[in-house]
């Protein structure tokens, strides 16, 4: 193993997305010098629009904020450590029922401002092209996300001695609120969750849904390259891929009408929900309507929805390739790359899926680095985050899954150490959550 770096030597973080931003904040806040490399805006990516840190490129939601939901629990765990991402998300929150969603511009601007104000954090706007040279001199966290530059992707693939895995992720459209026909839409949250009516809904009757469904099937989609397979992540399937699974699939997926009542007081046959993108309610996201249809077809098809007949699209659906490593083969539970002890990975490149989970891996990697530098120099690894916690369960998924069938995953209770004995179904989430917070509090007290 390479010699331990000086406790005063900076940690270099490559990538200023959610994972890199959280990692940099956790380290610098705990007195560890950090150099944060971000190539934007010097070199843009196909998905990003600005040079802000932690820019959200797909949904503006960080999923459920229910403290007994696995995603809500993960937020609480991160908040125990003063999470930059969760704290800023709460400051920039917009109504979204039981979910935590943000005004994406305010959120990224606030994260950027907080990072730029941190003492001990140096920001370099440059592309890192020589990973080996960087890791030879410094502790390094690679948090470049699913759009890792070709140069770094090739170097990491060479280091690991195997090809990358990949899947395709699709981005949902955003419409201008002033272009919507509000007389045909209604405000309501499913089952009345949240503080009020947080979603704008377009209700369809049976005939409207049938015509809409057929239009999706008839639409042209952007072709994939001949050498690529359509390996879509199940949690973010393009709407046309869902439609091909059967006419009822959309009604039991993103267009499910349960818990809603339309303008006539009755439950619609199907519903398309719009979630506000900013506090001004000027932009709305078509929830669950990720798409790789050609743009003219997207406009034609989505304008068939009641209230969207004259919709102006701020952004149309897109598709991009998400890259991740086979973590069970290459990653240790402290996010260290086995073949390169000074290199850690964080974010979606590890094989976690979602904004929340990406930020959580950046936080965990930072905690391990801090504990390592506080150690006695004997080389003993710091105690691992318990797999009874959400933070530990993510690492468990990344390091203990079958490498032959490894796929990206959001946080869910199936990743945790099982409960024994198994309680009643209606009690399980609460018990999982209380057990996790108790275990994490004990780990935090032990590690200081």
Distance between the termini: 26 Å
The low-confidence parts are: none
H/E order of the elements? EHEEHHEEHEHEHEEEEHHEEHEEHEEHHH
Helix content: 25-40%
In spatial order, strands of the major sheet run 6-2-1-7-17-16
The biggest sheet amounts to: 6 strands, mixed
Secondary-structure content class: alpha+beta
Number of helices: 13
How many beta-strand elements?
17
Radius of gyration, whole Å:
22 Å
pLDDT averaged over residues: 89
Shape field? globular
Strand content: 15-25%
Q: Quick gist of this model?
A:
The protein is of the alpha+beta class and 448 residues long.
Annotation keywords:
alpha+beta; six-stranded antiparallel β-sheet; 448 residues
How would you explain this protein's 3D organization?
There is one protein chain. The protein has 448 residues and is an alpha+beta fold. The protein is built from 13 helices and 17 strands. The chain has helices at 18-29, 70-79, 84-91, 104-116, 131-137, 150-160, 206-218, 239-243, 295-302, 327-330, 355-374, 390-400, 425-447; strands at residues 11-14, 34-37, 61-64, 93-94, 99-102, 121-124, 140-142, 165-171, 174-176, 186-187, 199-204, 270-276, 283-286, 313-315, 318-324, 336-337, 340-345. It has a 6-stranded mixed sheet, sandwiched between helices. Strand 16 (336-337) and strand 17 (340-345) form a beta hairpin. Helix 3 (84-91) packs across helix 4. The radius of gyration is 22 Å and the shape is globular. The model has no long low-confidence stretch (mean pLDDT 89).
Helix and strand topology:
Layout: E1 11-14, H1 18-29, E2 34-37, E3 61-64, H2 70-79, H3 84-91, E4 93-94, E5 99-102, H4 104-116, E6 121-124, H5 131-137, E7 140-142, H6 150-160, E8 165-171, E9 174-176, E10 186-187, E11 199-204, H7 206-218, H8 239-243, E12 270-276, E13 283-286, H9 295-302, E14 313-315, E15 318-324, H10 327-330, E16 336-337, E17 340-345, H11 355-374, H12 390-400, H13 425-447
Parallel strand pairs: 1-2, 1-7, 2-6, 7-17
Antiparallel strand pairs: 3-5, 4-5, 8-15, 9-13, 9-14, 10-11, 11-12, 12-13, 16-17
Helix pairs in contact: 1-11, 2-11, 2-13, 3-4
């Amino acid at each position: 193993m390479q010699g331990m770096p000086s406790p005063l030597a900076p940690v270099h973080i490559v990538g200023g997305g959610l994972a890199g931003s959280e990692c940099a904040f956790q380290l610098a806040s705990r007195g560890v010098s950090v150099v944060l490399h971000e190539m934007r805006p010097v070199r843009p990516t196909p998905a990003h629009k600005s040079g802000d840190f932690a820019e959200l490129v797909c949904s503006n939601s960080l999923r459920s904020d229910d403290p007994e939901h696995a995603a809500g629990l993960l937020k609480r765990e991160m908040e125990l450590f003063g999470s930059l991402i969760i704290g800023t998300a709460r400051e920039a929150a917009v109504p979204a029922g039981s979910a935590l969603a943000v005004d994406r511009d305010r959120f990224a601007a606030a994260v950027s401002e907080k990072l730029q104000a941190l003492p001990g954090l140096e920001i370099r706007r440059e592309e890192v092209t020589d990973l080996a040279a960087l890791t030879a001199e410094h502790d390094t966290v690679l948090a470049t996300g699913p759009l890792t530059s070709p140069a770094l992707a090739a170097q990491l693939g060479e280091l690991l001695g195997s090809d990358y895995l990949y899947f395709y992720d699709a981005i949902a459209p955003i419409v201008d609120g002033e272009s919507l026909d509000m007389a045909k839409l209604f405000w309501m949250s499913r089952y009345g969750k949240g503080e009020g009516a947080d979603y704008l809904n377009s209700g369809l009757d049976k005939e409207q849904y049938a015509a809409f469904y057929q239009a999706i099937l008839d639409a042209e989609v952007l072709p994939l390259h001949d050498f690529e397979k359509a390996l879509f992540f199940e949690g973010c399937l393009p709407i046309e891929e869902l439609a091909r699974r059967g006419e009822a699939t959309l009604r039991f997926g993103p267009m499910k009408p349960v818990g809603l009542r339309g303008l006539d007081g009755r439950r619609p046959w199907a519903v398309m929900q719009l979630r506000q993108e900013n506090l001004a309610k000027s932009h709305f996201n078509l929830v669950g309507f990720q798409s790789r249809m050609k743009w003219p077809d997207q406009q034609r098809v989505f304008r068939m929805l009641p209230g969207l007949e004259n919709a102006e699209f701020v952004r149309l659906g897109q598709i991009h390739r998400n890259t991740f490593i086979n973590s069970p083969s290459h990653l240790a539970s402290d996010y260290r790359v086995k073949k390169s002890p000074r290199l850690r990975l964080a974010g979606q490149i590890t094989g976690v899926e979602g904004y929340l989970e990406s930020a959580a891996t950046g936080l965990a990697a930072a905690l391990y680095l801090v504990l390592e530098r506080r150690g006695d120099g004997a080389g003993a690894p710091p105690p691992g985050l318990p797999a009874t916690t959400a933070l530990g369960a993510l690492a468990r998924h990344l390091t203990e899954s079958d490498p032959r069938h490894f796929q990206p995953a959001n946080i869910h209770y199936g990743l945790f150490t099982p409960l024994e004995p198994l309680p009643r179904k209606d009690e399980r989430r609460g018990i999982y959550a209380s057990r996790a917070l108790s275990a994490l509090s004990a780990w935090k007290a032990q590690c200081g």
